[in-house]
Design brief:
Elements lengths: L11 H18 L3 H7 L4 H9 L18 H12 L8 H14 L2 H12 L5 E4 L15 E5 L2 E11 L7 E7 L9 E7 L6 E6 L11 E11 L11 H7 L1 H29 L1 E2 L2 E2 L4 H30 L4 H26 L9 H9 L9 H10 L2
Parallel strand pairs: 1-4
Antiparallel strand pairs: 2-3, 3-7, 4-5, 6-7, 8-9
Length: 382
C-alpha cells in the first residue's frame, strides 16, 4: 500500500475544492511555467483567472468578496502548486496582505480592497524589507510624513514578493522616527497611476524564477490619510506581529507539499531509471534513502496538519508557528537534496522539476523571518 500523505483535515467539500485547484494548476499554470520563468512573472491574466474561479482569498468572508472558507482552502491551493514545483504565483503573500486588511483594516479599507483582491484585479504585496533592514523591522528607514489629509512616503524596499505585478502594496514606514517600534505604521498604496511610485528590476534570484520579486521606490508618494491601515498611527509593528502565525504556517504547508512532490517524482524516476542492468529502485541504498525521505515527509505532514488545525481553531501560538517554519523548511532542503542525488546528473538539469525544487527550497529558510530568528522566538517561550 502506498504511503498516505493526505492531510488529516480534508473533507468532501475541500476535496472538491482541491479538484478545482488541481485542474487550474494543470491547465493554466503548468503549460506557461517555462515561459513565466524566462520573463520573471506569471502575468496579470493568470491572477484574474484564478480569481474568477474562487481560488484567491478563499478564507476571506463573503461579506468582503472572499470565498467564505478557512485556512484549509488556502492550504489546498498552496499545496497543489508546491507539489508541482510552481512558485510564480505567490497566492500566499496575496492572502497575507488580504488578512492585514481583514484583521486590522477599517471597514472602508476592507470594502475598497478585498473584493478586488479576491477577483484577482489587484495583486497584493507587503513592502517590509529594505536594503539595510531585513529581519530587523525596527531598523526600517522609509518615512511617511503626515501633511494635512495625506501622508507623503519616501524610501525604498527590496525583495518584495509580487512586487512587479502588485496593484496594492502595504508599505511599512516610520510615522514617528523617535518612537522606535511604536512609531511604525502601515500605509496602503494603490500602484496604478501613482505619482512617485516606481518598480525597479525584477531581481535575478537563484530560484523562484517565475516569481516577480522586485525593488520598489517611493519618491514623495502621496496617499490619503484614509490609507493608514486601521486608521491609527503607530500600530504597524503590532499588526505585523499579530499575523506571523498565519504567514509561517503557509511556509510549512508549502514545504511539506514540495517534499511530497519531490518524493513522488523521485520514486517514479528510480523505478524507471536503470543502472547495471536493473532499476535504480532495487538497490539497497535507494530503498533506504526513500524510506528515510518518506518517514521525514510523513512526520512533517503530521506536524503541519496539527498547525493547520490549530490555526483554523484560532489557537496556534507564535512559538509553535515558528517551530513549523523552522523545522519544515530545514527538512525541505534536506529531503529535496537527497531526492536530487537519486536522479544523478539529470537532477542537476533545470528541465527536471527536482532541480528547480532544489533551488526554490533555499529561500524557505530566509523569508518569513530567517530560521535564526525562529530559534530566537522559540527560545523566548521556553
Amino acid at each position: 500500500m502506498p504511503i498516505d500523505f493526505r492531510p488529516s483535515w480534508m473533507n468532501e467539500e475541500l476535496a472538491m475544492f482541491r479538484e478545482t485547484a488541481a485542474r487550474f494548476v494543470e491547465t493554466e499554470m503548468l503549460p506557461d511555467d517555462e515561459a513565466a520563468r524566462k520573463r520573471g512573472h506569471v502575468g496579470h491574466d493568470l491572477w484574474r483567472r484564478a480569481g474568477e474561479i474562487g481560488l484567491l482569498c478563499s478564507d476571506i468572508p463573503e461579506a468582503w468578496g472572499g470565498g467564505g472558507g478557512d485556512f484549509r482552502h488556502e492550504a489546498v491551493f498552496c499545496e497543489e502548486m508546491s507539489r508541482r514545483g510552481l512558485t510564480g504565483m505567490s497566492a500566499s503573500a496575496h492572502s497575507i496582505v488580504a488578512h492585514y486588511f481583514l484583521n486590522h483594516g477599517t471597514e472602508d479599507q476592507k470594502q475598497r480592497f478585498l473584493p478586488r483582491m479576491a477577483r484577482g484585479e489587484l495583486v497584493g504585496a507587503i513592502a517590509m524589507t529594505e536594503p539595510g533592514a531585513g529581519s530587523d523591522l525596527q531598523g526600517i528607514r522609509t518615512r511617511a510624513e503626515r501633511r494635512g489629509d495625506s501622508y507623503v512616503i519616501n524610501g525604498s524596499k527590496t525583495f518584495i514578493t509580487n512586487g512587479f505585478l502588485a496593484g496594492v502594496v502595504l508599505v511599512v514606514a516610520k510615522t514617528d522616527a523617535a518612537a522606535g517600534a511604536r512609531g511604525t505604521s502601515i500605509l496602503v498604496v494603490e500602484t496604478q497611476d501613482c505619482a512617485g511610485y516606481r518598480v525597479g528590476r525584477v531581481l535575478d534570484k537563484i530560484g523562484l524564477k517565475a516569481q516577480d520579486t522586485s525593488e520598489l521606490f517611493f519618491d514623495d508618494v502621496t496617499v490619503p490619510a484614509a490609507n493608514l491601515l486601521g486608521g491609527r498611527e503607530g500600530q504597524g509593528f503590532y499588526q505585523l506581529m499579530a499575523d506571523l502565525p498565519y504567514e509561517r504556517t503557509f511556509i510549512g504547508v508549502g514545504a511539506v507539499a514540495a517534499m511530497e512532490g519531490a518524493y513522488e517524482a523521485t520514486l517514479a524516476y528510480v523505478r524507471e531509471r536503470k543502472a547495471f542492468g536493473k532499476p535504480v529502485a532495487e538497490f539497497q541504498n535507494t530503498k533506504f534513502k526513500l524510506a528515510e525521505i518518506a518517514t521525514t515527509t510523513k512526520v512533517a505532514r503530521t506536524f503541519v496538519d496539527h498547525c493547520v488545525e490549530r490555526l483554523v481553531a484560532g489557537t496556534l501560538d507564535t512559538a509553535t508557528a515558528s517551530m513549523v517554519k523552522l523545522w519544515t523548511s530545514d527538512q525541505q532542503g534536506q529531503v529535496i537534496d537527497e531526492c536530487l542525488q537519486l536522479f544523478g546528473g539529470y537532477g542537476y538539469m533545470n528541465e527536471y522539476m527536482i532541480a528547480r525544487m532544489y533551488a526554490d527550497a533555499r529561500i524557505q529558510r530566509i523569508y518569513g523571518g530567517t530560521n535564526e530568528i525562529m530559534k530566537e522566538v522559540i527560545s523566548r517561550a521556553l
